[in-house]
Structures
1.
Amino acid sequence: MKEFNAINEQRAEFYWWMSSLFANELTQEDLINYQGSSMDSYYSALAMTDELKAPIAGFRSALAALKLREDAQLELAADFCGLFLSTPKTGALPYASMYIGETGLLNDKPAQEMGQWMEKYGIAQRKDFNEPFDHLAVVLDFMGNLVILTNKETEEDKQEALMQEQQVFLETMVTTWLGSFQKSLEQFDGFGFYKASGVLLNAFVALDLSFLKGE
């Protein structure tokens, strides 16, 4: 049981990290942390999994390039705005509705479905993050919380049911559009930090799905 809980804590930690990365522009303090020894040890731990080795190498390369970039924090903030606060023609908007919605507008069906998931499990969006429910940061934060809910269950059948729910959530609310989002990052992220982050996220989600399916 302890090992099971520890694995879930590690999974949740990754989803929460990625949620924060795509939620807001990174501060100078964030960058110092990302390039520090503690996070480097975390990257090394992730890279011990074969499926994450190459994505972690790409992410580390992007971090190394940041050290050579003049006014790195300001330039990365500009990248964030250009990618995530622009239009579908010039950026990679982080909303499911932009990729699998029916109208091409925000707050389409994916946002409504995400709201239903949040209501079902009593997991609220952060009050200081005023974005539609289908924003990538909200989706990933929810997944992290859903994982931790499993650890709070003491009955094995209820834990199993929640693990199945995690699989359903990833298959219906994440993988349905994450690949298209990544293609937009590939197209529009000239510097490559967020593109590398997306590659890592996609690889982890695929790995996590295999884990949930018992493969």
Note: The two ends are 20 Å apart (CA to CA).
2.
Amino acid sequence: MDIHKPKPVHSWRELLSEVGVVVIGIVIALTLEEGVRTLHDREIASEAREAVKEEIRQNLSYMSGRLETQPCIERRLDEIGRILETSREGELSTRPNWVSQPSVYFLSNQRWQAATGSGRVSLLSTDEQGSLGVFSVINTRFNEAEAREQAAWSQLRGLESWQGPLGSEGRVHFATAVQEARYEIWETRITIGLALRLGEKLGIKPDMPKTMDKSYVVPHAICLPISTPREQALKILSQDGSPPWGQPK
């Protein structure tokens, strides 16, 4: 093995040359390290962006399915409203066999929360953070409106088993539930409209709702006629192979 002793520096020029070589080497190393880190950050940001967008796409698909059933919901509320109007405080003019309720869609924020908690969202641009973050607010608002809506419909289903005259208290009770349900229809419609418009700007398109697929023949519970016997309605709704959870009474 040959061991070369370092050569002595005889002038400032040689010293500056040696220092320059070292500095250039350090700069090159730092630049390469920064480049690798930048590429890694871009990859992480891309993964986070695609994960969040996929979650948004799924939620928009659920919203589109909900929007398609709005006419059925409004028609059912009109039917109940007419029953209450004609019955006033007496016996029900027509006893509804199947009040039902709107379908429930659970919008998820898990991927957005995971990206935020891990710090990956900070790798996105400020505009992206703002645009994608709005969907988290929209999802929360939609889920809350759904919960209030289901509470109103749980009261309206009491008409299926109501016995005797409504009385003033009964009439006010059901009329209030109808109005609450009507408000939540408006709330969900506004929320869905905002989400779909923002999704279009971001190039995120929802999948076609199942009910828009002609091969899917099982309707939503709320779209069955109000005169449908409960046993028949449950039989129809079970045709899609859903878990045997049934429908609330």
Note: Residues 82 and 208 are 34 Å apart (CA to CA).
3.
Amino acid sequence: MRRIALSSLVISAVLAASGPASADPAPVVIELFTSQGCSSCPPADELVKHLAERQDVLPLAFHVDYWDYIGWADIFADPAYTDRQRGYAHVGGRNMIYTPQMIIMGREDVVGADVMEVSEALSAYIGQKPKVQLTTGRSEEQLTVSAPALPDGMSGQFRVQLVRYMPLERVEIKRGELAGNTVDYANIVESLEVLADWTGAEPLEVTATFVGDLPAAVLVQEWPFGPIFAAARVE
């Protein structure tokens, strides 16, 4: 227990050095590719749990399925999330994928368990204004997403995505590399839905069905698998 507590203190101290928490509604998006079958992943999962406490950071845990063969099938895994990680690798010119990997704002590839590296990468994005002024709203079971047309020269191919996630789940792992461990997982991606493809030449106006109590966020990303230009939590 003492070792776990010390680890938490170290994580908190290092992340605090990455910049003060901001009231900016456009958080820095961190995608963690992780697995319950990966013995190297718990430190990264713990890091996501701490990052989830910040308002200026939006960590999202994408559980991949390629470690399931070891003996424990990750209960949150989805082949689509493995495909997403492969998409980032292809665009980034990387010939392999791994866990735990973090992709920051669709741009930077860092080792998810390396607190110092993650903190340094975060410091480059905290407090930056988004390139897309994204607005979201909810009314009963409907979600609206809007943004003004982009300035001349910024138009391109963008994908507007809705991500739903579970804030926290505790899992007892009974087989595989982490057999006998109980792990807390935070901001577990439950679904990822494409709302629209957008060029930015015209204002964005999207309406979608929004049912249930799971928290959510909207991402505007250069496509395929490029930089995330804006993100907004769905309140």
Note: The CA atoms of residues 51 and 92 lie 25 Å apart.
4.
Amino acid sequence: MENEKYLKDIQDIKQMMSQSSRFISLSGLSGILAGIYSLIGAWLAYKTIYFDTSTMGSYRTLIISYEAVVKLFIIAASVIVLSIVTGLILSLKKAKKANESLWNQTSKRLLINFLIPLLTGGFFIIFLIEKEILSLVAPLMLIFYGMACLNASKYTLGDVRYLGITLIILGLLSTWFLGYGLLFWALGFGVCHVVYGALMYFKYDRN
């Protein structure tokens, strides 16, 4: 009986230490919604590209107008902003429910480790766009975002690690199938976010 009490105390201590070193207020529902936003964005991008009257060339050698590029940028920016705002609102709600602070040392470390690969990839992709090397933009977005998730996963839920690995693999496959970037973009940022978000929601949030 005494041994069982000690074992329970040890388990409680380990759980408290794990929670204090990991950001557990990450909402699975925010991942689902981010995936839905991405799928809608991919559909709008598809319509913009393939219904643009200035579009020329086949699927793999597509040339689009400047106006279409501006529309694509607006769509991408809208998806990013919506995903960030949704994630913040739902994570804040989850943190309040658990009587925890959203902004603490763990969330700071999470943000720093997430942003280092993400910003590096962002600047690199901007340089590629400036040099008009557009075929690698979608694969590198997936790869660097996956690396950001992988790098930040040690400070949050472990499922984020597997999301990162999946995105990196999709990004590498996308470099093999150049010209199908929009399809891989929809798979990575859309379908994967919905699937992993749903898994996290049913695993951590429903209770």
Note: The first helix runs from residue 2 to 21.
